[in-house]
Amino acid sequence: MKIAYSLVTRRTFLNTLFGGWLVAFCGGSLYALLKFAFPTLGKEPDFVVLKTTDFINIPPNSVKPFAWGGKLGLFFKKENGSTYALKGVCTHMECNITYKPEDKKFYCACHKGWFDDNGKNIDGPPPKPLEFFEITTEGEKLIVAKKGIKVELPKA
């Protein structure tokens, strides 16, 4: 069956094509301007400086969150008293993880991924272990840094 008249006129087609091009151009320009204005947006830091008193006295077998750039960082104290800092996002799709003290495991609720208390991926889709950071203290400052990064704070 052949349609005698088209429901889309030439003018409607051209207006839609021009409008789509205009939206794509404006969106791309806005994205480029935002990346120019905020170049570090979405990037992770090499280190963060925290107050030691806020993190050292947490109870054993617990975690305390901190900001690692725009992502979640976790300060973790094991039952034996040893402390660790790790990135609190799953290695699968970067969902936030939570610590389950009764199981002594980290859990990603997005896709049901599990990590042991050493950060090793033990169940679910996560392909890699969790990322751990190095911890150093200078006076009342707790410095959490990526592995291999040497941090020198200014003397004031």
What does this structure look like?
- With 156 residues, this protein is α+β, with helices and mostly antiparallel strands.
- It is 21% helix and 33% strand.
- The protein contains two helices and ten strands, in the order H-E-H-E-E-E-E-E-E-E-E-E.
- The protein has helices at residues 10-37, 52-55; strands spanning 47-51, 62-68, 71-77, 83-87, 97-100, 105-108, 113-116, 121-123, 132-138, 141-145.
- The strands form two sheets. It has a six-stranded antiparallel sheet with strand order 1-10-9-4-3-2.
- Strand 5 (97-100) and strand 6 form a beta hairpin.
- The longest helix has 28 residues, at 10-37.
- The chain starts with 9 loop residues before the first helix and ends in an 11-residue tail after the last strand.
- The mean pLDDT is 91.
